Amino acid sequence: MRQSLENLIRSTIILKTTLGVWERTSLSSMDDNCLKSTNDEDLKRIIYEGIIEYSYSEFEIFEKDVNILHRNALLTKLKYNHSASDETKEKYWFYGEVLLDWILKTIFWTHSLISRWYFYNPLENGETKWFDCYHLISDNEKLYLYYGETKFHANPKSWITDVLNKIENALSDKNLEKNLLVLVNHKEKLKDPKMFFIIDERQNEWVNLIDSLQKNNITLVYPILIIGNHIKQDYDENIQEQILHIESLLPKNITISIPHEIFFIFLPVQSTKDIKKTIIEWISSNKALTL
Fold first, then answer.
1. What is the greatest pairwise CA distance in the chain?
2. CA-to-CA distance for 226 and 155, rounded, in angstroms?
3. What single-letter DSSP state applies at residue 75?
4. What are the contacts of 161-169 at 24+ separation with CB within 8 A?
5. Domain range for 119
6. What span, in angstroms and rounded, lies between the C-alpha atoms of 214 and 106?
7. pTM reported for the whole predicted model
8. Based on the structure, what is the number of domains in the chain?
9. Which helix (H) or strand (E) holds 92?
């Protein structure tokens, strides 16, 4: 992790407040987190430059030309199509995923279990098949597996609706097992030996993947990062408007078998379109990295 980029993130994305048990959404089992961007221009730099750590391990970055790595990541990992229309490029998922990756690392002290790009296809039609991050926290004998979701669009309320309409399917044994099978296929890339061992237990034909998580005391943590334009001028009113919308759409039946935690991360910005437009321009011009 480049220290200069981490410093920029910590000075740009600040935790304004946490919403405890009496303020958070009824869906949340952990405190919701309200973030604020001190400078949306620096937020653009974080996304643009953060593509490298999102795509590569520290070992792969060490003593390498970051500008070459950046271009390679766009082409070979994110499958960025330079010939696509700007409208198509604005729909790519990596803008929010890069921010979610960095927010979890710098604010929640997680580490990446495996790079999300292994499962990434920005041109795929329909619902994305995988979670938006694969992170881990080890707390003594207990493991917390972070499988997150992020939405980065102008109208946060419409995308909150989209998330909550799909959350029952997302947080189900069937969907979790599907994601675990992907990890099995890439187990040699896993960055935590404990998780490698758990996944590798599947070599025993009697071990069910969900059962393996339960046996090894795994808790699934599902952060939902909502990045959208201000729908109210006042920051607190803006957050409250989103919470009220969530309360009107609460899912009825989350049936996942393993222990799980859910919380929201709110990050209002001035203009999601402007952020994406600038990043597209930087990519087109091969803007040199400065951090």
1. 57
2. 10
3. I
4. 161/245, 161/249, 163/224, 163/226, 164/27, 164/246, 164/249, 164/250, 164/251, 165/249, 166/127, 167/251, 167/254, 168/251, 168/252, 168/253, 168/254, 168/255
5. 3-284
6. 28
7. 0.90
8. 1
9. none
Comparing C-alpha atoms, which of 132, 27, 34, 64 is closest to residue 289? 64
Query: What span, in angstroms and rounded, lies between the C-alpha atoms of 22 and 111?
Result: 30
Residue type at position 88? T
User: Measured at the alpha carbon of residue 188, what is the angle toward residues 127 and 258, in degrees to the nearest 5?
Assistant: 55
Determine the residue type at 153. Answer: H
Mean pLDDT in each 10-residue stretch from start to end of the chain (291 residues)?
Answer: 89 94 93 95 95 81 83 88 93 91 90 70 48 77 86 89 88 85 73 72 66 85 93 90 92 87 95 96 94 80
Helix, strand or coil, per DSSP, at residue 137: strand
Break the chain down into helix, strand, coil percent, rounded to 5: 50, 20, 35
- 289, part of any domain: no
For residues 151 and 163, the answer to whether their CB atoms sit within 8 Å is: yes
259 to 63, 142, 214, 215, 219: CA distances (angstroms): 41, 12, 8, 11, 5
Length of the chain: 291
- The helix/strand/coil state of 236 is helix
3-state DSSP assignment of residue 150: strand
